[in-house]
Specification:
By secondary structure, the protein is of the alpha+beta class. Helices cover about 15% and strands about 40% of the residues. The N and C termini lie far apart (about 95 Å).
């Protein structure tokens, strides 16, 4: 009887092992607000890499060489993205013309409530100012309020709408029907984002997004442009130079190598700031955004000898020195100097409980000269 029992246990163990061997490989890891799944079995048995991104991780559009209508190796774009903060993930954005040498960016884009690139397509991967991912049509963005949009990138096709498969595009069947490398994005009901890459058809892609619990979904650029990076590892490598990627940043800044003894260093970007040769100290490190340096407002205003006033009700900072007065509202790209509007490249914003302002615009408004030393990553302000 004992011999028979042992034999049954052995057979059961063999059956269990056989079942495990037959299952698709699925490695799951969670870190930095991401959940990464390798070898996820999608609709039709397709194998995909999947990254789920929390809503408190913020996105940024990264253009090749810092401008639309350009292209660069993805490794360079990742390095550029890393220099701007604590990069935890990245994936390809919208289509571009990679064949005729123009590298024209096709999809329309919004950033900080502003329409920054005119283009095509009507499905927008959207990140709101209150930290929610959405997929909206162009008309829905207008109804939602562009001032509430932190970032939006248009592409095609739409795959899921309201929890139902809904493949919407004007692209021809030659593009829509074959199986090819795809980049899929979907949004769950709680506002988190799901990004997946793998070889599949758009029909199966839509079914996979539903399988992953998404209530809305669409595709980004694919084919040789399909790209996915998470927690320091490339899950899907691009087969060509890219035009634009969407970088995802964590809450905390990355450490930078220490600089010289006379520089006030940023733990996040390695940027230091000096005013008339004196290094400034900041309780919130400066950041680099779209090629512009932002610093805590009170530190820079006081270093320039300006009186500062903050209105929390209107989220507006005012500063005055001698005959120069400036006002700037958080989230706005308009700085008002002595009643004249000046358009900024990046808006003032709140990070880590501190209000950061673009240092060059502020300093030049008070008549100072601003320089940049790329070797030491130092902003120099001289009066």
């Amino acid at each position: 009887m004992k011999k028979r029992t042992n034999t049954c246990k052995a057979l059961a163990l063999i059956a269990t092992l056989a079942l495990l061997i037959s299952l698709p490989l699925l490695a799951v890891a969670s870190a930095n607000g991401l959940t990464v799944q390798r070898g996820y079995s999608g609709a039709g048995g397709t194998s995909l890499n999947v990254v789920t991104i929390r809503g408190d991780l913020t996105p940024k559009i990264i253009f090749a060489n810092g401008v639309p209508n350009s292209a660069a190796p993805v490794s360079e774009m990742i390095e550029d993205a890393r220099a701007q903060g604590n990069l935890v993930a990245a994936f390809v954005g919208t289509f571009f013309d990679s064949y005729d040498g123009t590298n024209q960016t096709y999809g329309a884009m919004y950033r900080d409530g502003q329409y920054i690139h005119h283009g095509s397509y009507n499905a927008y991967l959207t990140y709101t100012r209150d930290g929610q991912w959405k997929i909206l049509d162009g008309s829905e963005i207008i109804a939602f309020g562009t001032e509430n949009v932190a970032m939006a990138v248009a592409c095609t096709p739409r795959l899921v709408r309201g929890g139902q498969k809904s493949i919407e595009t004007s692209e021809p069947d030659s593009f829509m029907l074959p199986s090819a490398q795809r980049t899929l994005v979907g949004v769950r009901a709680d506002g988190t984002l799901v990004v997946a890459t793998g070889a599949t058809t758009f029909e199966r892609a839509a079914e996979t997004l539903l399988q992953l619990g998404c209530v809305d979904g669409m595709a980004m650029d694919g084919g040789a442009s399909s790209f996915l990076y998470a927690n320091g590892a490339t899950l899907q490598g691009a087969g060509r130079d890219l035009n634009n990627i969407i970088a995802i940043y964590g809450v905390h800044a990355v450490e930078a190598p220490p600089g010289g003894p006379d520089a006030a260093q940023s733990a996040g970007s390695g940027i230091s700031v000096t005013v008339n040769g004196r290094a400034l100290s900041f309780d919130q490190p400066p950041i680099s955004q779209d090629g512009r340096t932002l610093v805590p407002l009170r530190a820079i205003f006081e270093a320039l000898g300006a009186d500062v006033d903050w209105n929390p009700a209107t989220q507006t900072v005012s500063a005055k020195r001698d005959d120069v007065s400036i006002t700037l509202r958080i989230g706005s790209r308009i700085l008002v100097r002595n009643g004249v509007d000046i358009t900024l490249d990046v808006p003032a914003q709140t990070i880590g409980g501190r209000t950061l302002v673009p240092v060059r615009a502020i300093a030049e408004s008070f008549g100072a000269e601003v320089g940049w030393n790329p070797a030491t990553r130092t902003v120099t302000i001289t009066e």
